[in-house]
Amino acid sequence: MKDLGRLKYFIGIEILRSEQGIFMDQKKYVLDLLAGTGMVDCKPADTLMIVNQKLYMEEKADLADKGIYQQMVGKLIYLSHTRPDIAYAIGVVSQFMHQPQKAHMEAVLRIIRYIKGTAGHGVLFKPNGHLETQLYTDADWAGDKGNRRSIAGYFTLVGGNLVTWRSKKQKVVALSSVQAEFRGIARGITEVL
User: Fold this and answer.
1) Which one of 32, 33, 34, 116 has the fewest beta carbons within 10 angstroms of its own beta carbon?
2) Contact by Cβ (8 Å): 9, 27
3) How far apart are the C-alpha atoms of 90 and 97, rounded to whole Å?
4) Are residues 172 and 188 in the same domain?
5) How many Å apart are CA 103 and CA 93, to the nearest integer?
6) Is the residue at 46 inside a domain?
7) Partners of 15 in the beta sheet?
8) Domain co-membership, 141 together with 95
9) CB of 93 closer than 8 Å to CB of 73
10) What string of pLDDT tens digits covers the 193 residues of the chain?
11) Residues whose CB is less than 8 angstroms from the CB of residue 7 and which lie 6 or more positions away in sequence, other chains included
């Protein structure tokens, strides 16, 4: 074995150390993704998704290229390891991997346009002098237009630093917003425990 010194770059993740803490990003990975999709010169989008956009499987809609769609979404899933801001949108578009439609591909291209404008974003881990664990949860009641299931999400902070984040469609249809929120809280508490 050989000591190569402090970690700086590993499997597409860049690690920068300073007095403020440790910053992790995937800027080079983003630039390679833009080059691979031919979107280096695209105009950046201000938001990940169109406000209140609900993606679902439409009857008799035009299909997108399944292989290209799966490749793009797969790369975006890997990017979400250091980008909690895109995790929800990636979860939404990854639901249509089996039969992507044109509207789903447009949503993926918008995410790529968004990350072009935010290529340097990442996660900062800084010393805050404590190791308190905090949990935040939320859920939308019957947010999936296709099957009326709710989507719940949570993120946890340890010592004031973001360590886990997740959003997932619930397995059953909630009969009320309270039930959807309760299921989201239960999943978040399970993560903390």
Assistant:
1) 32
2) no
3) 11
4) yes
5) 10
6) yes
7) 24
8) no
9) yes
10) 888 888 899 998 999 999 999 999 999 999 999 999 999 999 999 999 988 888 888 888 999 999 999 999 999 999 999 999 999 899 899 999 999 999 999 999 999 999 999 999 999 999 999 999 999 999 988 877 778 888 888 999 999 999 998 888 888 898 898 999 999 999 999 989 8
11) 15
Of 112, 102, 107, 158, residue with least CA distance to 131: 158
Task: Name residue, tokens 């249509």.
Answer: 96
Count of structural domains, the chain: 2
Which residue range(s) make up the domain with 13? 9-122
Name the amino acid, one letter, at 94.
S
CB 119 within 8 A of CB 193: no
Tell me the sheet residues that pair with 137: 154
How many CB atoms are located within 10 Å of the residue 103 CB? 16
| 3 state DSSP class of 107 | helix
Q: How far apart are CA 166 and CA 146, in angstroms?
A: 21
Taking Cα atoms as reference points, which of 134, 188, 135 lies closest to residue 159? 134
For residue 127, what are its two tokens?
Answer: 């010393």
Place of tokens 């039969």: 99
